[in-house]
Amino acid sequence: MQSYLNRPKEFSHMDREGLIRVVEDLHNQLDEVIVILENINDGIYLTDGKAHTIFLNKAYEKMSGTPRNKFIGKSMYQIVEEGLIDSSGTIMVLENQKEVTIEQTLNNGCLALITSTPIYNEEGEIILVVTVLRDITELSRLQEEVAHREKEIIQLKKYMESRKKVIYNSKVMESVLARAQRVARYDSTVLLTGETGAGKDVISRFIYENSSRSDNDFFVINCSTIPKTLIESEFFGYEKGAFTGAVKTGKKGIFERADGGTVFLDEIGELPLDMQASLLHVLQDKIVRRVGGTQNIDVDVRIIAATNRNLQEMVEEGSFREDLYYRLNVISIEIPPLRQRKEDIFPLIDHFMNFFNLRYGMHKHFAENTLQALYEYDWPGNVRELRNFIERVFILSPSDIIYKEELPVALQSKGEQFIIENEDMTLPEARSRIESLLIEKAFMKYRNVTDAAKALDIDPSTFVRKRKKYIDEGFLSEKKFEKKQ
């Protein structure tokens, strides 16, 4: 087509029939070009050098959500003024005399990437502007999803990093961690004691991650969950053909695989007596022998053991080897139950709530009176029970705020039970406790001093004085009485 346009002199010497043939050829080529443009998936929009619309294809019509007769014959200035589009790449090209690429939201909600390119004549004047429109709605959605996933990954990484830090606020746990930090640098065997769910596994990992072996493997074995018939092969491995069902090539045991690393033996008190002797052999001689094997294999492994049982009593009963007990009990660390470190409850609640909010993409939190009920509860299952409880109420609660009424009855009434069950409390202490609870409940309900005092049938000045008294004495938290914005 361009070759004809570049030969104006030849046209002047053509006869009428020749000129007709040229026009027909041009027309045929133009039809072919239009067919091609109409079948392109990208939107195509052509204007002349004055921004008057010459052509747009079906794809542009579909993406814009506007019939083409609304565009044909109009200038882009008029089209923008009528609100058919909010901005024009064509106008930008004519104003800046260069190619322009912009993102634009079309009337039908599609997000499009628009590139407008100028076409010049021999004098350097713009005679055409070709605009290509590409629907990037799906691409944009995918980019947003990727960005969201990347953000989640970053947040999860932060959470995983936070797992390396023990969540606590109590002096007693500060002492536990200080002791764990000191022993971490040595290879001595450590025995962790404490109730089920108190956090022995967390402290074991803390010791490992702060040790010189932290770059090597950390294996966790729960001695109570491995069948007695499989304990020996799990611990020490086996040679090929050692027993029916064995892997043909043999298998390394935990201690062999953990060479250079750390093994955490949880529930060590559940280990059968015959396996206690084998474990003692590993601790003393630093060697293992696979089941069905004849060769000793050197292993360099640090042992951290844990139990919720009294091993000394088990030694006296004959259910735990005395020599193994002393081998394990080189350094002992007792993890106190959660009821003895109440200061850790709120930080743990925050930690678990942040985790579940991140995991499920929500923004849930506990109401103030709910937090108080959780604080008063004894948590016999300790941190594990607290975590499982939070996950349960998180999932079952229908709203973003979890109210006290949604808690099990045992948790709802714990604050009141505490007063009756605490036999060591003096009468003045009990009176203070009851008054402080009533003051707190009234304020939580009415959120202002006047109505709260009226509900308790006391003067507002008396309410304020008693509130200050119990805050100073530690029965109340000043934070609970801050006004909500």
What does this structure look like?
The protein has a 5-stranded antiparallel sheet with strand order 2-1-5-4-3, sandwiched between helices. It has 3 domains: 2-139, PAS domain (Beta-Lactamase); 166-336, Rossmann fold (3-Layer(aba) Sandwich), CATH 3.40.50.300; 342-481, Helicase, Ruva Protein, domain 3 (Orthogonal Bundle), CATH 1.10.8. The chain is an alpha/beta fold. The protein has helices at 2-5, 8-12, 16-38, 58-64, 76-81, 89-96, 137-163, 171-184, 200-209, 228-236, 254-257, 273-285, 311-317, 322-328, 345-360, 368-376, 382-396, 409-412, 414-421, 427-446, 449-456, 460-472, and strands spanning 43-48, 53-56, 100-105, 111-120, 126-135, 190-193, 218-222, 237-238, 251-252, 262-266, 287-288, 297-298, 302-307, 331-334, 365-366, 401-402. The chain is flat.
The strand line-up of the biggest sheet is: 2-1-5-4-3
How many DSSP-defined strands? 16
Poorly predicted residue ranges: 1-9, 415-423
CATH class of the largest domain: Alpha Beta
- CATH architecture descriptor of the largest domain: 3-Layer(aba) Sandwich
Quaternary state reads single chain
- What is the count of helical runs? 22
Structural class: alpha/beta
Overall morphology: flat
Write down the overall mean pLDDT: 83
Strand content: 5-15%
What is the helix content?
A: 40-55%
* Biggest sheet features: 5 strands, antiparallel
CATH superfamily membership of the largest domain: P-loop containing nucleotide triphosphate hydrolases
What is the alpha-carbon Rg in Å? 39 Å
Give me the CATH fold name of the largest domain.
Answer: Rossmann fold
Q: Give the distance, in angstroms, between the N- and C-terminal Cα atoms.
A: 72 Å
Number of domains: 3
